[in-house]
Amino acid sequence: MSNNKDWLASAGSNTQLCHTGYDPTAYHGFVNPPVVHASTVLFPNARAMETRSQPYTYGTRGTPTTDALCRAIDALEGSAGTILVPSGLAAISVPFLAFLSAGDHALIVDSVYSPCRHFCDTMLTRLGVEVEYYDPDLGEGIERLIRPNTRLVHTEAPGSNTMEMQDIGAISAIAHRHGCVVTMDNTWATPLYFKPLQHGVDISIHAATKYPSGHSDILMGTVSANAEHWGRLHEANITLGICGAPDDSYQILRGLRTMGLRLDHHNRSALAVARWLEARSDVAGVLHPALESFPGHALWKRDFKGASGVFSFLLPAADGPGARSKAHAFLDALQLFGLGWSWGGYESLAVHVNLSDRTIRKGPTNAAVIRLQIGLEDVEDILADLERGFEASAKV
Ligand SMILES: *Cc1c(COP(=O)(O)O)cnc(C)c1O
């Protein structure tokens, strides 16, 4: 067996998932990296300590375990460097703190992951950053919102819960013309279905909590930067002391090995469920980018290699209170689906989506938005469970 890994750069995504991030010859041939629990790292002498002239210097600055995960993410993202943080939310707040200063203006997509909006409206605003939300459909039209002090444009596609697509390439090109850094929350697609840095994004953000973990038992975020922005992102990571834990890093690397297989299954099952829902007369719409009927479908088809397992549908109702009762009846009748936050694990989940914080892309007044995460169960069982929900909500 040769140690040559030159072939890996041009290999397929499942091959990369199996072979990136760690070299077994570096640790006695064991296939997986050791889990290094560490704060202190010892130096051989005072001079080495003073000059920090060894690969590892302190636990917060990386270990062989966290490095293995970071190198795997870099290979998938095509990034110059990746930092690990303790949650997907921290994977948003840390780069915002890295690149924004008092007096700056930030443009945030209105269909953003809701806790990101909370961070922007509270802490970021308190620190003197002016936050403005924009319509995900803007594309090149984002130019008219850019001001002399606009420093950051945050994108997320598809949008959380309502799945709006964005023209990431067009937005990045305009933002760069005005000297802005472009960040993208790519949690839904993972780097297997969309590679943000190839479309002009500077900073790619992931809740590794979702598909990389895959088992609803780990919280972690990854932030990957292109060469131009890596230095500043890495510096912020060190300055804030926000780092990834060893056992969690190990589990995320482990999850990556099977992520391609799992995503493929989520992809197919979710699309089958979405088409089943679309054909029903008691559904007012299905928000899934891979459906031809979805407004953002053309963008999705142009830019994405696949769709993951999360989408929403509209349960028709007379008004807001009616929508709430119908949604609750639907959710309470489910037996296979769990009612819980987050997604990306093996089990199906359902949520009645709350869109009350939206300022531009507001939720419907005559329907409830139900978000589904389609897990790895058999599709027939998933459909049978949804049928229970429809039966119950019809009675309300
Ligand atoms: C879940 C999620 C996050 C946050 O991840 P946590 O690890 O739960 O903090 C960020 N962005 C998106 C799009 C998410 O769905």
Automatic annotation (TrEMBL):
<feature type="modified residue" description="N6-(pyridoxal phosphate)lysine">
    <location>
        <position position="210"/>
    </location>
</feature>
<dbReference type="GO" id="GO:0030170">
    <property type="term" value="F:pyridoxal phosphate binding"/>
</dbReference>
<dbReference type="GO" id="GO:0019450">
    <property type="term" value="P:L-cysteine catabolic process to pyruvate"/>
</dbReference>
<dbReference type="InterPro" id="IPR000277">
    <property type="entry name" value="Cys/Met-Metab_PyrdxlP-dep_enz"/>
</dbReference>
<dbReference type="InterPro" id="IPR015424">
    <property type="entry name" value="PyrdxlP-dep_Trfase"/>
</dbReference>
<keyword id="KW-0663">Pyridoxal phosphate</keyword>
<dbReference type="Pfam" id="PF01053">
    <property type="entry name" value="Cys_Met_Meta_PP"/>
</dbReference>
<dbReference type="InterPro" id="IPR006233">
    <property type="entry name" value="Cys_b_lyase_bac"/>
</dbReference>
<keyword id="KW-0456">Lyase</keyword>
<dbReference type="InterPro" id="IPR015421">
    <property type="entry name" value="PyrdxlP-dep_Trfase_major"/>
</dbReference>
<dbReference type="GO" id="GO:0047804">
    <property type="term" value="F:cysteine-S-conjugate beta-lyase activity"/>
</dbReference>
<protein>
    <submittedName>
        <fullName>Cystathionine beta-lyase</fullName>
        <ecNumber>4.4.1.8</ecNumber>
    </submittedName>
</protein>
<dbReference type="GO" id="GO:0019346">
    <property type="term" value="P:transsulfuration"/>
</dbReference>
<dbReference type="InterPro" id="IPR015422">
    <property type="entry name" value="PyrdxlP-dep_Trfase_small"/>
</dbReference>
<comment type="similarity">
    <text>Belongs to the trans-sulfuration enzymes family.</text>
</comment>
